[in-house]
Write a structure and sequence with these properties.
Length: about 500
């Protein structure tokens, strides 16, 4: 028993300290949105996806620029036996004991117009026989101009020049959309907590009213003004109000944890959301919203990219029907036992090769791949047409929902005020015995439902508005486009 008293005393001391350690903080919807965009996990994911797309685009751009490459073998030591064939046809083995060095310095440039590659190369080879009486030898190619050019194959570089800018534009639009989606999730979590807070306040008030009415009913019962059934009904209402208070407290803690985790706020902060007001905005027009969405949404870029990729697959399959590659090399070469002399008395060094690969009999395999690529392209185009229809329909329904939501919000706001006043009047009327407990309970339920309906309609107003922003990347209140400094964002 003594141990229990000690534990109760510790709890009495520690509990106020724990509660005081938590810092209560009022937070507006705009503040929550700004925090989510800056430090939520979803915002970090969107940023990393943008950076990935940026570096992929930079890699593509680098393919169009000249490259300087140094390749070499430093050194190549060979001490082994190799077979050789004598003049009489017999074989023997000879011992190798050499040290070799090779190096190539080249400037390479992809030719996007033709899909070929042009290289300016300079190389130097050195070999020395090790051991007694070993010789050394140098061979140089001071300058060589090389061209590698596919004749009939697909021009990958040209296709990438068409596809990659569209892909990056899609990624940039998707980043802004993802930012707006972070806002939409913030709105959801914010209003969930706001509704839980309102429900807790309502539950506390309902419990206070229920306890007070029960005390009044006890006095009335003693005077015979109400029946035993009505007294029991009020006692039951008081118990239900107490149970509802416990449930709403638990729900508030859960919604608090959810919003704090999303915003990246410490668990020592108690967030107190402020009821936002609906901002007067223009009535949305379907055609205007649709045009903005088709112009700026990543969906438009996504359609263009998929069309190009489908065409690219067809072009690749057609290019594989036959293969003709041209290799040409023009330059000078020299060789000598001494290094300075290797660059004197240079000789022509010219190579021209034309490689051909044309199937004579492949049982229609390559042409079948062309037909498969065309069929896949038709499938992609059919899916795109259906997606466009669905996209237009979603835009139409969203505009209708938003325009209707403003009216629904005004109705809910007025109904909330009326229900609050009716409940207050019902309590006063019950105290003078003009209405029974059923009418009082009905007024209370109507009051609670009207308050929840008001907050719910306010939530949908903001949610629909930011959903339209996320699809159009346009702020219709300020009539400005949603932009981002991508260079600054990438440097973060």
């Amino acid at each position: 028993m003594k141990k229990k008293n000690i534990l109760f005393a510790l709890a009495a001391v520690c509990l106020p300290l724990a509660l005081s350690a938590q810092k209560e903080r009022e937070i507006t919807l705009n503040e929550a949105i700004a925090m989510a965009r800056a430090q939520s996990v979803d915002a970090a994911v969107a940023l990393n996806e943008l950076k990935t797309a940026y570096w992929e685009f930079r890699t593509f751009r680098a393919d169009l620029l000249p490259e300087v490459n140094l390749t070499g073998t430093l050194p190549n030591y060979n001490k082994s036996y190799s077979s050789y064939q004598n003049s009489d046809g017999s074989y023997g083995f000879v011992r190798n004991n050499t040290l070799g060095l090779t190096g190539d310095l080249s400037i390479d440039q992809n030719i996007w117009l033709t899909g070929g590659k042009l290289s300016l190369t300079s190389s130097l080879d050195y070999i020395k026989q090790l051991g007694a009486g070993g010789n050394r030898h140098f061979m140089s190619v001071p300058v060589t101009l090389k061209l590698i050019q596919p004749i009939f194959g697909v021009n990958n570089i040209k296709w990438n020049r068409r596809i990659e800018p569209v892909r990056y534009a899609e990624a940039k639009a998707a980043f802004i959309t993802a930012t707006e989606e972070v806002t939409m999730r913030t709105i959801t979590y914010y209003f969930n907590l706001l509704l839980a807070k309102e429900n807790l306040g309502t539950a506390k008030q309902n419990q206070t009213n229920a306890d007070h009415l029960y005390e009044v009913a006890l006095a009335k019962r003693k005077m015979g003004q109400i029946s035993e059934n009505e007294l029991l009904q009020l006692k039951l209402s008081a118990l239900n109000a107490k149970a509802a208070l416990t449930e709403t407290e638990s729900d508030l803690n859960a919604k608090m944890f959810q919003l704090r985790a999303f915003l990246g706020v410490g668990e020592d902060e108690v967030l107190s959301p402020v009821l936002p007001e609906a901002v007067e905005g223009p009535r949305m027009e379907y055609n205007q919203v649709l045009n903005k969405a088709l112009e700026r949404n990543s969906f438009a870029q996504n359609i263009r990219r998929r069309q190009l990729e489908a065409d690219y697959e067809v072009a690749t399959a057609r290019g594989n029907l036959r293969s003709v590659d041209l290799f040409a090399s023009v330059g000078y070469t020299g060789e000598n036992r001494n290094f300075p002399a290797v660059y004197r008395n240079l000789q022509d060094n010219q190579i021209v090769q034309v490689g051909v690969k044309i199937p004579i009999l492949d049982w229609g395999k390559r042409r079948g791949k062309v037909r498969v690529a065309k069929s896949n392209r038709d499938v992609v185009l059919s899916k795109i047409r259906q997606e466009q229809i669905n996209f237009n329909q979603d835009i139409f329904l969203l505009v209708e929902h938003f325009n209707n939501q403003a009216q629904q919000l005004d109705i809910a706001k007025e109904a909330d005020a009326i229900a609050q006043q009716r409940y207050k009047t019902s309590i006063e009327t019950f105290l003078i015995g003009k209405i029974n407990t059923l009418d009082l309970n009905d007024a209370q339920n109507s009051k609670d439902e009207a308050r929840q309906k008001h907050i719910s309609e306010l939530y949908y107003y903001w949610y629909y508005y930011y959903q339209i922003r996320s699809l159009t990347l346009w702020d219709f209140r300020t009539n400005t486009e949603l932009e981002a400094d991508f260079d600054e964002i990438i440097r973060q």
